[in-house]
Amino acid sequence: MNRAIPLKEQENNWRYPFVGVMLIIFPFLIILQVIRIQVDPKLLARVQEKIVISQRMPKTIFPARGQLYDRRGSLLAGNQTVYEVGVDLKSVKNPQIIAQVVSAVLEIDYADALLSCSLTPTESAVYSVIVDNVPKEKIDSLKIIIEEMNKQYASYKGDNPPSLEGLMFSPHLGRIYPERSLASNILGFVNRENKGYFGVEERFDGLLAGTIKTFMVQVDPTGAKALPKVPDGASLVLTIDREIQRSMEDIIDRAVSSNAAESGTMVVLDPRSGEILALATTPRMDLNEFWKYAQVFPNATPFNRATSQFYEPGSVFKVLTMAAALDAGSVTPDTVFVDTGAIEVGGTVINNWNLVAWGPQDMTGCLQHSLNVCLAWINTQTGEENFYRYMSIFGIGHVTGIDLAGEVSGRLKMPGDSDWYAADLGTNAFGQGVSATPLQMAVSISAIANGGVMMAPQIVNSVVSEGYQHPIDQRVISTPIKPETAKTLTAMLARSLEIESSDALVTGYRIAGKTGTAEIPTPFGYTSNATNASFVGWGPVDDPRFLVYVWLEKPSSSIWGSVVAAPVFREAFESLVVLLNLPPDDIRRQLNAGSSNASQ
Amino acid sequence: MDQLEDFARAYSQAPWRKQWQIIGVVCLALVLIAMISGIYLNISAQAAAVGRDIQHIQGTAIALDGENEHMQSQLALILSSAEMESRAHNLGFESVPPDQIVYLNVPGYEERKPVILAPSEERTVIGARFMPPEYTESIFEWLAIRVKQWYSAIVEVQP
Q: In chain B, what residues touch A581 (CB-CB under 8 Å)?
């Protein structure tokens, strides 16, 4: 029996075939698109990219830069939270107000801030940085202002709302040097891009910075996994002592100022280990204001004169000349030289510093009076081959290999070099015609203080990495002279200071040392009246604990090392014995005897 | 006989009976789907929550590391050489002149050594030798050792 279909129902019958057709067309289109994606490689790449973006996002982890400590554990370089201030361009309502507030609080240029805030947002540019490395205190001030403005203008209905909306802060770690300019010449600094410049920061930049790693993180939280641990940069424990460094810097600053010298440098090292206890030079800068570098170090001034500036050291070099001669057997302490006030070596006449003939002198007398003629004669006895061989073993003309960036080698002209002349053998004997850095001189002479063994200079004591501390081994560079030679020469130098009643002497302590006054070469020869004044000394003589090398560049108060550099050494020595708890020699011997008796 | 046939037909072909059967099957399927979906949703939600927690904790850990570094530096600023000296001066301390220093013989006193901030690798390796095997062996290793011990015990008691 046929049922009659109502008219209204008949009118809507088209809907069924329509739905049917749609159900056929949609799957067909889907299949068509699938085929298209498979066939078109560009479309395939685009789709794959979209899939990756929708499933995973990159997350970059910046490890904290390693810290720097002195040998006692005082922090010399650390990290602090600083902020990047920027704007979300799409959210900015009033760029003028943002620029005004930010420039006032952060003390930056209004026009620059306004430019950053006024950029038009695009698909690729949604955020603009206004300023980076803003300290936390400033951000706190900004937050208070934002809060106040939000309260005050919450009901504002005008066209141009005084809103700071869009202003954003993102924290990250930035470098801080708590001691400011202390040891700045050793530490170096890190710029805003976390790159180290000069000193330890540059030398160990890779180690300190660690490795930045980027991971693809699943957006879907069900697939979230713990991120692999990214180790922070390694921390370094340095050999320097903060208190010694500070004291030496104070002393050298005062010396430069009181002698109106162009610059001053002081090296303090432990000859037994090669560890640098202090390395003070001028000028220095507050490392937290590294952008002032060009002001503090104009015209390519070396950042660290102790390692990066060589000079003709003058008479302090006689210590090495005498060491070579004694060790080679050319002379003995009792050898007598009759000083006539002049000697000709390689066609050049060499005179004493005061142009006077000193008559018969033993070798101690030659050192005590710093006789150029005597030392030039000694070199003729030692011979070219022996002298330059010894100097080479002492490391003259080579870098010391200290773990600081920017070390330079001086110049030791050798027989056979195009610019070497026979006269150089004579002038080199008293430290002219040869150049070395203060550190090179200190390291070379430390061999004499350390019984003939020359230790490699060391500024890094240990590396702290991934929870472990790895000590850096102390290295012997060479053994240029025999222990007996070192002992003999030390005694000669101590005796010469005592006879001379040198300004370097310190009551209660026996010290060995030598002054140096060097003429400064110009393009036209030694025509300048200015000098380099130096002093090298170590003590106590029977158990040397430290060696101090002082260099004052072009002092104005006096040209002589014995007048300007020796008192600086004394002041340094007096400070060092207190800081290192080193009693006077007689008390030390009593204490040592007491300890031995107690242990028996 | 006819009555019996009528009775059987009536029951076998009753429309309401077929409808109930279909409704029952559909409802059962729906209940099963709902149960599975519920369990899946619950587990997914838990996994998502834990995932978010992990991400959050990691973020917190990174932030705390940063805060630690920041506070260490702030402490170093307060304890810096210049700050300490000025504080000492303000408190009335003065540098001791060298001639006023008294040296005492302290038995056992040793020269100050450079700071130790972390254990050395060598020391840790030495310590690891004394770590009980329970901390390092797997369950299979543990089982193998026990079986070996048991076997040894049996062998030993044999004449």
A: 103
